[in-house]
Write a structure and sequence with these properties.
Helices cover about 40% and strands about 20% of the residues. It is an alpha/beta fold. The strands form 3 sheets. It has a 5-stranded mixed β-sheet with strand order 3-2-1-4-8, sandwiched between helices. Helix 1 packs across helix 2, helix 3 packs across helix 10 and helix 8 crosses helix 9. The protein is globular and about 50 Å long.
């Protein structure tokens, strides 16, 4: 029996794929940019191509894998394979049969899960969450997602638990991509940060963010572009990153005041890029709002890195 399975991490800026064994060892990987136009079928096509590339690197055909797990944004229904309202992806307002589409294309069973929840499960079983019976995963990227582990088990609620990006950090505040106001994601999500940078740059504020984006041939302000702007001492980039850290600290503290978890694990594209350099600032912001500040949760950085989402997704195949 083949012990290899595929994992696909579908993000707002990138599609990361990996071929993984039962112990989490990666034998092949590939990465492609997420399409910026078209619709769900175009995204599914790019996912298929990326998985095939990873399989080729592992010297295996997709049809010979035990299965493929997919971590997707939006409402990812593990029972039906439908993904709905993935608003950070092009043209994805309704429902699309992502699981069925990929299974037919790849010739192997496909399981669908929420992108952040599967990444958090990867950290729980193979990464930074292993020492803890309870922790909160915070995935800082195009949006801000979360995952909860309580008493050693994922807590899914009725299916919408851990939407930490939509904790309100400022009543009647900035408009969030979800359409509501004042959510953490409206200040800390990469998409919302880019929208704010464009608004302020259009109003006359100086920044090199968009020059750097064009120079490096990127269609969006990726985590790497934000990092380069900070290295250049860009004032607007610095202000928006600091604003994001403030929102993250406020929202995470609120969640910790309810759950009283042992640890907080920070991941995601921006989390991987800025977690290490900004962990002290994040801890300081969290302590401002934490009720039990004498015994704060540990703050850990996701240990599986860029491949964490794909490795976690592969765990859906049992």
């Amino acid at each position: 029996m083949v012990d290899l399975r595929g994992g696909i991490d579908l993000g707002g800026t990138k599609i990361q794929t990996a071929i993984v064994d039962r112990d989490g060892t990666v034998s092949g990987e590939a990465r492609r940019p997420t399409p910026t136009s078209g619709g769900p079928a175009d995204v599914a096509g790019a996912m298929e191509e990326a998985l095939r590339e990873a399989a080729a690197a592992a010297a295996i055909e997709p049809k010979d894998l035990a299965g493929v797990g997919v971590g997707s944004p939006g409402d990812a229904n593990g029972e039906t394979g439908l993904v709905s309202s993935a608003r950070n992806l092009p043209g994805w307002e309704g429902s699309f049969p992502l699981g069925e589409t990929l299974a037919e294309a790849l010739g192997t069973p496909v399981r669908i899960g929420n992108d952040v929840q599967v990444a958090v499960e990867g950290e729980h079983r193979l990464g930074a969450g292993r020492p803890y019976g309870s922790f909160l995963g915070v995935w800082w990227g195009t949006g801000v997602g979360g995952g909860i582990v309580l008493d050693g088990r994922p807590w899914l609620g009725r299916g919408a638990a851990a939407e930490i990006g939509h904790i309100v950090v400022e009543r009647d505040g900035a408009i969030c991509p979800c359409g509501r106001r004042g959510c953490m994601e409206a200040y800390a999500g990469r998409a919302a940060m880019e929208a704010e940078a464009r608004r302020r740059h259009g109003g006359g504020e100086k920044t090199d963010l968009f020059k750097l984006m064009e120079k490096h041939g990127k269609p969006r302000l990726t985590s790497g572009i934000w990092a380069r702007a900070l290295d250049h001492g860009d004032d607007l980039a610095t202000q928006l990153i600091e604003r994001a850290i403030g929102a993250l600290g406020t929202g995470v503290a609120s969640a910790c005041n309810v759950l009283d978890v042992e640890a907080v694990v920070i991941g995601g594209g921006l989390g991987d890029r800025f977690g290490k350099s900004h962990i002290d600032a994040l801890r300081e912001e969290l302590l401002k709002h934490l009720f039990s500040d004498a015994d704060p949760p540990r703050i850990e950085l996701a240990a599986l890195g860029d491949l964490g989402g794909a490795i976690g997704a592969s765990l859906l195949v049992e």
